[in-house]
Structure formats: C-alpha cells, structure tokens
Amino acid sequence: xxxxxxxxxxxxxxxxxxxxxxxxxxxxxxxxxxxxxxxxxxxxxxxxxxxxxxxxxxxxxxxxxxxxxxxxxxxxxxxxxxxxxxxxxxxxxxxxxxxxxxxxxxxxxxxxxxxxxxxxxxxxxxxxxxxxxxxxxxxxxxxxxxxxxxxxxxxxxxxxxxxxxxxxxxxxxxxxxxxxxxxxxxxxxxxxxxxxxxxxxxxxxxxxxxxxxxxxxxxxxxxxxxxxxxxxxxxxxxxxxxxxxxxxxxxxxxxxxxxxxxxxxxxxxxxxxxxxxxxx
Length: 280
Known about the structure:
The chain is of the alpha/beta class.
C-alpha cells in the first residue's frame, strides 16, 4: 500500500492502472469498522482501491468541530493496510485548496436545505465541492459511500448524474455496534454514560417503523412527534426526526419506499441514523 500526499503523485501512480477498475472511498479519517466495510465493498467492485483521508474544512461551519475532529493517520493507514487498500491519498488543505477560501462552489440545490442542511446550511456545498475534486483527481470507475449519511449519499448521486461524472456510486448499509448504535467517528466524543444512552436512537427508529407499518397515513406525523417527545424527555437534543420518501421528499399516500432519519445530540456528539422501510 502506498501513501501519497500530492495530487501529482497520486495521478502518476494511477496512470499504470487505468486499464483496471479503480474504486474511490472518500473518508475524513479516524477510521472504524464501518469505513473498513466500505473498503471491502470497494474491493468487490474494482481491482484498485484508493482511500482518501482528508478533513475537509469547507464542510464545517463556524463553531463546528473542524479543529477538534480526530486525526489518526498512522492508525488509519495500518487499518487500511490490513484491509488491503492499494493507495491512501492524504493531502494537506493547501494541496486540495491552493486558493482558500475557494472561488468555485458546487451548489446542490433544494436537497441541501432539508434535514442536516437546516442546521448546517453550508455543509453540503462543502461536501459537493470536495467530492467533485476527488472525482476529478482520482477519476474512479466506482465510488463507495456509507448509507449512515443518507442525505449525503443522495446529494452525491445527484452530483454524479447532473455533472456527468459517469461513476458507479455504491451505497453500503450502516455498520453497527452490537447494541445497534451506528458506528461513527463522532462516537468518540461520548462519555461512558452517554455511550450507554446512544443506542436509544436506533431503538426509536425501529419503534417508529413498527408503528408506521400499522398506522394510517394521517397518523404518521403524530407518530413522529410522539417519539420526538420521548427522545427530548431523555434530555437528548433532537436536531431532526423525520419520515420522508427515499428521494428525501415529503411523503404522499402513494409512497411505499420510506426512510426514517434522525440527527440527535448526545452530549456534544451529533449522531446520525436512519432506517429504510417498504410499505406493503
């Protein structure tokens, strides 16, 4: 496995592999088992796997955790070596953004204004920019993302389609701890007591799914409000708890493919989770 820090070096290395299928796994590092599952999935789709490790400043808002976001490059590279990734691309901010703040923006429209976009209004524009840059730098055949960031995945699929990258964008199911908590780098912010509480997020989504499957359309909003109130009663700050269709639009009575999405603060950790469901 080779670790590369410049765009020129990465592209020079990839030149010899252009006859093979290349997969990209974009990450911000501090890797856990969920990331490693992305690498394993990428290996199923491609001959060469490139993992980027870059804490992207353009997707962090004022007062967010860019400076404190965990950076564990040596440990990450050891995990990727064990997972048999081929290349790690770990650029500096100056390498990725010679002009900073960048002049060019990638704006993804209405889909960025719901869910996480309400409380993080510039976040997905930053995601769109860095992913576009990585797609242009690596020119992969396949790009692999986790479904935990469900809105991000939907935005990247839209980006891929509308900007004609022609990449096969693969979504991988959420990897969870034994108690159901979605694996996340931000879980490291949890105290021991908070870590015991955090699985209630997934447990709540499961309860919502069960109730929705037995309810009439007219009752859906009341069910969501009921469980929002339950989480709040546990002294958790609910950023959002919503039921949308799989295109992240408000649901109609005809929609069958739904997704329950949540962002909940457990202490300082803002944790995301979601649960897809199909109505019969």
